[in-house]
Amino acid sequence: xxxxxxxxxxxxxxxxxxxxxxxxxxxxxxxxxxxxxxxxxxxxxxxxxxxxxxxxxxxxxxxxxxxxxxxxxxxxxxxxxxxxxxxxxxxxxxxxxxxxxxxxxxxxxxxxxxxxxxxxxxxxxxxxxxxxxxxxxxxxxxxxxxxxxxxxxxxxxxxxxxxxxxxxxxxxxxxxxxxxxxxxxxxxxxxxxxxxxxxxxxxxxxxxxxxxxxxxxxxxxxxxxxxxxxxxxxxxxxxx
Length: 240
Fold this sequence. Notes:
Blueprint: H1 2-27, H2 45-68, H3 71-76, H4 81-112, H5 114-118, H6 122-144, H7 157-163, H8 179-194, H9 223-226
Helix pairs in contact: 1-8, 2-4, 4-6, 6-8
């Protein structure tokens, strides 16, 4: 079981994530969408959607930093383990609360708005259930081991996670990890495996090019504001 959970399951989830994404892109391009229900109701969505998206972004960044930024690097930067623990505790909890509230508002909207509820599929329900479970379990695990410097997962879970990229998973690192953290990790891997088969697939369509595109220049048409257009040259004139 230990080898299955920490040596095989991560790669199974990764293969499903990559292969499922390629399959979805090739054979279901028109389904590569969130199936927006804004046309049915937008007031509550305008509140819940930013909370959900910003919350999940902060949670994702926090996990990337915690798992893939070695403890020695933060120590060299002058950040003690206690300081890192407090930042992770309060920052992670705030991001988790924001995400949970966003999910709850989205679920409330889906359940109370008849057209939106009718547009909700069994796939959507499964996605919300697994996502909600992953977030809540992570928060419970963090808060349960919050006393003192808390549980230092950067000495166990983080090295295991980094070892996966060497294709030689150090499963012994997961020995002694609190059960809540183990369940959180398993549910998280299941969530990644489900991404290509749910509406979460739209995360790969984030318009990042908007961050680098040049400014759009708008010009007024009023000649008094921008000056009259100069007379056309001979080869620009139409007709003769």
